[in-house]
Amino acid sequence: xxxxxxxxxxxxxxxxxxxxxxxxxxxxxxxxxxxxxxxxxxxxxxxxxxxxxxxxxxxxxxxxxxxxxxxxxxxxxxxxxxxxxxxxxxxxxxxxxxxxxxxxxxxxxxxxxxxxxxxxxxxxxxxxxxxxxxxxxxxxxxxxxxxxxxxxxxxxxxxxxxxxxxxxxxxxxxxxxxxxxxxxxxxxxxxxxxxxxxxxxxxxxxxxxxxxxxxxxxxxxxxxxxxxxxxx
Amino acid sequence: xxxxxxxxxxxxxxxxxxxxxxxxxxxxxxxxxxxxxxxxxxxxxxxxxxxxxxxxxxxxxxxxxxxxxxxxxxxxxxxxxxxxxxxxxxxxxxxxxxxxxxxxxxxxxxxxxxxxxxxxxxxxxxxxxxxxxxxxxxxxxxxxxxxxxxxxxxxxxxxxxxxxxxxxxxxxxxxxxxxxxxxxxxxxxxxxxxxxxxxxxxxxxxxxxxxxxxxxxxxxxxxxxxxxxxxx
DNA sequence: ATTCATAATATGTGCGCACAAAACATGTCA
DNA sequence: TGACATGTTTTGTGCGCACATATTATGAAT
Lengths: 232, 232
Fold this sequence. Notes:
homodimer, alpha+beta, Arc Repressor Mutant, subunit A, Chorismate lyase, six-stranded antiparallel beta sheet, two-stranded antiparallel sheet, about 35% strand, DNA-binding
């Protein structure tokens, strides 16, 4: 059948076409790598490379000894890049600025303790700040920082560098949970954001850990009209 | 120095630690794979595997002949799985239902033509449908389907299977653009969703193509309180 | 100085091999 | 029957090699 050697992309595309065209259905088992390699006239490592890609894309599931199966519930998998807010603003060609609204050492409220996956209370630094693009409100962030994990943050001048930027640059994280939802601007948020009271705002919530130690959780309230889109 | 052979994960973690700790700064160039391999006591292919991972995670950028550099603008990269709505509802333990509100062949409005990256007008099937969880509104979708690319859709009984599910199962796509934002429910949407007028709703907009041919663009308006989160 | 062909170099791909590790199957023993 | 050890199967990892490919650097010719 096939004569020319196939590249891993060709192998991937061939299998993907089989799945997407319905020749393979969700839940179906695929031949083992070695058989596919023989059939497609390539090395097993090439099939492996193709499968690695398909697996990461969420199209197939692989298990040792269990073989490879078409994912039973097809999904659309999307990847987003969330940059440092300053970079995001500057990439839009706007002038970046930020205002520290409040910084205070507080015990973590129950919602934050829950977000951190903890039971016991946690000492936190609460930081509220407004990111500006060309002087106009861009993102309002309400942030809790676990001072036990990040004690140095207390020595940082948060009027000079935003907690967002300092943390991303200085605190590696091993786990990051993200959540998106919509809220209506309450009077206070509306005033800070220069939005109409009741306006619909996209919220990006992010919590990070290093190992099992919580670092920070932040509620980023975006300005009216803000859109988040997949990288191209 | 190092004696034990390193696995690609160890190599990846070592390099990642160098980046995140600041020993390597954004924009810095890394040694070439071969030197890293010698230094870390492993094969070049192992370094290659580690770099592949770091590159996909957005931590480094690699170019042939240009070498490897730490990405100049650090980002948080997040991956979402957007399942078929029926699966999503059922995974929450709820009973799925859906109602076809309207289906009509219409010329694509300008916004849709733009979303499809086209200039000329396009014949579309407009479909409006409501997805239900336990009988309650879950997602309202407004969808335009390019009938030139997907003529078979006209023969599908959209009261029996949702356009969402039919398309995902029958129409492979090669490109998918996603966009999230918040809207306020206008009176009609509020009535359909059983929400208060003016409620903040998360909208997921998705456009797919096969090759350069548009398939569909959909505006999925979610019920109040809907949250989208990264897969765990 | 500018343009263009050419060389040098780092990453990307592919192969074949060997062994590791997970997960499932089987059979033994109580 | 049930718990547990053992074997088998499939994917995962690692190595070393050769060559492909993209990109930058070099230098010649105008």
